[in-house]
TrEMBL record:
Oxidoreductase found in the keyword field: yes
Protein name: Dihydroorotate dehydrogenase (quinone)
Source species of the chain: Robiginitalea aurantiaca
Keyword Zinc-finger found: no
Domain Dihydroorotate dehydrogenase catalytic: 49-342
EC number, as in UniProt: 1.3.5.2
Described function: Catalyzes the conversion of dihydroorotate to orotate with quinone as electron acceptor.
Keywords: Cell membrane, Flavoprotein, FMN, Membrane, Oxidoreductase, Pyrimidine biosynthesis
Taxonomic lineage from the root: Bacteria, Pseudomonadati, Bacteroidota, Flavobacteriia, Flavobacteriales
Main location: membrane
Originating gene: pyrD
Catalytic residues identified in the record: 178 (nucleophile)
Length: 350
């Protein structure tokens, strides 16, 4: 139904407007009592899907990637579509509008999206207020720096977000890999990244002690455009700083092999979707092999089918996340992945 009726209608309109309309529609569906029907249709509960990683038990290994519910507006409702966890953000200390519109583009011929949103969000404090509502959803907090914050002061932005979110999320993601904030990717260089992650891990220990809670895992989200030398540096940095894991990968600045019109494929920003599938899996496999599986990896990038998700799990990912695939394939994709995992587990058991 989604791909035959709903998606063709939605794809006739501006993608950013459609995103806001979709949020309003989902909110209204829950408000008028359709939540149980949504959960009945899409939510799949089975102990065999539970995945224990990062000191957490995920009800299933399929999550929603950051960027979809930036401000924690619908994290409980979105979990009802079957996600095992929801990652909010990227959040910054102060609200910011992001980059000028138009800044979101569908490349339908490539089953891809280009975005140059620029960390548009209402600020971490608004998200915290929403997260205070009782819920049973595993939530990750993806944190970044404000556009106007110089790189030599970026650590303070990340530390502020960590402090404010600490009691309310289950894990953190350090985003230094978005291509849409000027100079941000410079923080992936070895020296500044080592300093940033070391300070966040130290602060995390102090926050855990002050809140009398377990230490929350901190993961690093990396770009797919890093070369092998840089990826080896990432493995070393993760080990040296005690960072808990990696999310591979963010969007790419590459435009290799696209079939869409140059007027679309030439737009600046980060590319996500099908064209990213192979490269993100390569990065996952490289990190997993070179680290000897020393840390968990969350695989994201180009997952449009159950087979795509299984490929990333086979390459070394412990969990996977959707974003563009969720837009193109609809919520049925989550159940398809979990069903494929159950079938695989059943075949292995027999």
């Amino acid at each position: 139904m989604y791909k035959k009726l709903i998606r063709p209608l939605l794809f006739r309109f501006d993608p950013e407007k459609v995103h806001h309309w979709s949020f309003k529609t989902i909110g209204l569906l829950y408000r008028f009592g359709f939540g149980p029907l949504i959960r009945m249709r899409f939510l799949q509960r089975d102990k065999r899907l539970e995945t224990k990683v990062l000191g957490l038990t995920f009800p299933n290994p399929v999550g929603l990637a950051a960027g979809f519910d930036k401000d924690a507006r619908l994290f409980r409702e979105l979990a009802g579509f079957g996600f095992g966890f929801i990652e909010i953000g990227t959040l910054t200390p102060r609200p910011q509008e992001g980059n000028p519109k138009k800044r979101l583009f569908r490349l339908k011929a490539d089953q891809a999206i280009i975005n140059r949103m620029g960390f548009n969000n209402q600020g971490v404090d608004i998200a915290v207020d929403r997260l205070k509502v009782p819920h049973d959803v595993l939530v990750g907090g993806n944190i970044g720096k404000n556009k106007t914050t110089p790189n030599d002061q970026a650590v303070e932005d990340y530390l502020y977000c960590l402090k404010e979110l600490y009691p309310y999320v289950d894990y953190f993601v350090v985003n230094v890999s978005s291509p849409n904030t000027p100079g941000l990717r410079e923080l992936q260089d070895k020296a500044p990244l080592t300093e940033l992650l070391s300070m966040l891990k130290k602060a995390g220990k102090l926050h855990a002690a002050s809140h009398d809670t377990r230490e929350k895992p901190i993961l690093l989200k990396i770009a797919p455009d890093l070369n092998e030398t840089q990826l080896l540096d990432i493995v070393e940095i993760i080990e040296d700083t005690g960072t808990d894991g990696v999310i591979a990968t963010n969007t790419t600045i590459s435009r290799e092999g696209l079939r869409s019109e140059p007027s679309l494929s030439g737009e600046t920003g980060g590319l996500s979707g099908k064209p990213l599938a192979g490269r993100s899996t390569e990065v996952i496999r490289f990190l997993h092999q070179k680290s000897n599986g020393a840390f968990p990896i969350i695989g994201v990038g180009g997952i449009h089918s159950a087979e795509d998700a299984l490929e990333k799990l086979d390459a070394g990912a412990s969990l996977v996340q959707l974003w563009t695939g969720f837009v193109y394939e609809g919520p049925a994709l989550i159940k398809q992945i979990n069903t494929a995992l159950l079938k695989r587990n059943l075949s292995l058991d027999t």
